[in-house]
């Protein structure tokens, strides 16, 4: 196997010759000016090539160094960007939590008629019809079955099962839930029963309304205080449609719930009514 081919040998000899000529020209510059000028004329192209090669090598070295610097800075910026995103996420979550808690605090302060205990939602029923929640307050916290559950928006449901430190809440959307209700409007005060609507799971249905009952779209519906579970005056929702029963003497009102059940995170359990303050 040949280590060097002819072209390589010729190239090496040429560079060596040029190198020796450069050295000789430098030594003989003062002694032989004519030879020096001839050598300078001959070697100028080679000097230009060597200078270009040296400049290219230097530029390549600087480019590589700058590229490495940019890469390190990019990695640093990427880490800082991820950290900032995490901080923004935490601040946004804290702001949302503060907004919810502020609304709950205002509701609790204004609602002087009931004794309430705050609870956090720690679980949900994955079913589509039997809606329920699990809260972090239970028998050891004074929670009992059939206690109403509310938020600052309105009625949520009632407690159906109680454990040591947790309790299960059946939502008003559940088809097995019902609440005695009435129209808030003073000119009406029509009464009926609000229950979960199996036909439209995002709406409630107010039934047992007489066909001539004064119920119109936009009416606010609240608990009537009848039935033994829910006290009077808890907001249920707003009427969005009124439908007559086929061949009957009654009609139904479709109600959009006041509570956004899909976003429940904190609730209040009504554990009792406050005694009125005597003057």
Helix count, DSSP H or I runs of 4 or more residues: 2
**Portion in beta strands:** 25-35%
Helix-strand pattern, N to C? HHEEEEEEEEEEEE
Number of strands: 12
The low-confidence parts are none
The strand order across the widest sheet is: 1-2-5-4-3-12
Helix residue percentage = 25-40%
Q: Main β-sheet, in a few words?
A: 6 strands, antiparallel, barrel
Q: Shape from CA axes?
A: elongated
Number of domain units: 3
Radius of gyration from CA coordinates: 43 Å
The pLDDT mean sits at 81
Structural class: alpha+beta
First-last Cα distance: 117 Å
Question: How would you characterize the overall build of this protein?
Answer:
The protein is of the alpha+beta class. It folds into three domains: 110 residues; 57 residues, Beta Barrel (Thrombin, subunit H), CATH 2.40.10; 86 residues, Rod shape-determining protein MreC, domain 2 (Thrombin, subunit H), CATH 2.40.10. It is built from two helices and twelve strands; from the N terminus they run ααββββββββββββ. Helix 1 crosses helix 2. It starts with 5 loop residues before the first helix and ends in a 6-residue tail after the last strand.
């Amino acid at each position: 196997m040949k280590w060097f081919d002819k072209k390589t040998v010729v190239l090496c000899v040429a560079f060596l010759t040029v190198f020796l000529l450069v050295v000789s020209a430098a030594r003989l510059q003062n002694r032989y000016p004519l030879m020096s000028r001839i050598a300078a004329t001959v070697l100028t192209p080679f000097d230009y090539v060597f200078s270009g090669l040296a400049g290219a090598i230097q530029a390549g070295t600087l480019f590589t160094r700058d590229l490495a610097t940019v890469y390190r800075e990019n990695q640093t910026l990427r880490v800082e960007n991820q950290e900032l995103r995490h901080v923004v996420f935490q601040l946004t979550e804290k702001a949302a939590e503060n907004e919810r808690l502020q609304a709950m605090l205002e509701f609790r302060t204004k609602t002087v008629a009931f004794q309430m205990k705050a609870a956090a939602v720690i679980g949900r029923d994955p079913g589509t019809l039997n809606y329920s929640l699990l809260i972090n307050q239970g028998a050891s916290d004074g929670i009992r079955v059939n206690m109403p559950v509310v938020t600052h928006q309105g009625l949520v449901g009632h407690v159906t099962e109680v454990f040591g430190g947790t309790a299960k809440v059946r939502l008003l959307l559940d088809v097995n839930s019902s609440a005695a209700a009435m129209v808030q409007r003073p000119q009406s005060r029509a009464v009926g029963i609000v229950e979960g609507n199996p036909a439209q799971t995002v709406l409630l249905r107010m039934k047992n309304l007489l066909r001539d009952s004064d119920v119109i779209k936009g009416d606010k519906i609240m608990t009537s205080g009848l039935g033994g579970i829910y006290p009077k005056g808890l907001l249920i929702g707003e009427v969005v449609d009124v439908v007559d029963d086929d061949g009957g003497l009654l009609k139904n009102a479709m109600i959009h719930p006041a509570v956004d059940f899909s976003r429940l995170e904190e609730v209040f359990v009504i554990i009792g009514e406050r005694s009125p303050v005597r003057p």
